[in-house]
C-alpha cells in the first residue's frame, strides 16, 4: 500500500532524519537513523544512507516500512506577502 504525504519546507532545506521525524515516520532521531542506514529510504529514486542529506523543494522521498511505502513530496516554503 502506498501513502502520499506533502511536506512544506519552512526554510530552503531540511535534513533527511529531521524530515522523517517531522512527518511522524520515525518517532526519534535514533529510529530515523536506523531506517536510513537500513536502506529503507530513497531520495529521488536512489537509496540514501546519509541522515544529514539536505532535502530540498521538489525532492521525492520514499520510505519503505513493513506494511506500506510512504511517498513524501517536498514543497517550497509558502511565499509571505509583500
UniProtKB/TrEMBL annotation:
Gene3D superfamilies: RNA-binding S4 domain. CDD domains: S4. GO terms for molecular function: RNA binding. InterPro entries: S4_RNA-bd_sf (IPR036986). It holds the Pfam family S4_2. Keywords: RNA-binding. This is RNA-binding protein S4. It comes from Vitreoscilla filiformis. The lineage of its organism: Bacteria, Pseudomonadati, Pseudomonadota, Betaproteobacteria, Neisseriales.
Amino acid at each position: 500500500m502506498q501513502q502520499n504525504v506533502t511536506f512544506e519546507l519552512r526554510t530552503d532545506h531540511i535534513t533527511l532524519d529531521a524530515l522523517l521525524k517531522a512527518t511522524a515516520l520515525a518517532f526519534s532521531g535514533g529510529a530515523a537513523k536506523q531506517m536510513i542506514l537500513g536502506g529503507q529510504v530513497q531520495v529521488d529514486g536512489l537509496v540514501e544512507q546519509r541522515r544529514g542529506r539536505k532535502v530540498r523543494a521538489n525532492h521525492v522521498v520514499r520510505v519503505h516500512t513493513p506494511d506500506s511505502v510512504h511517498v513524501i513530496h517536498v514543497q517550497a516554503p509558502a511565499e509571505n506577502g509583500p
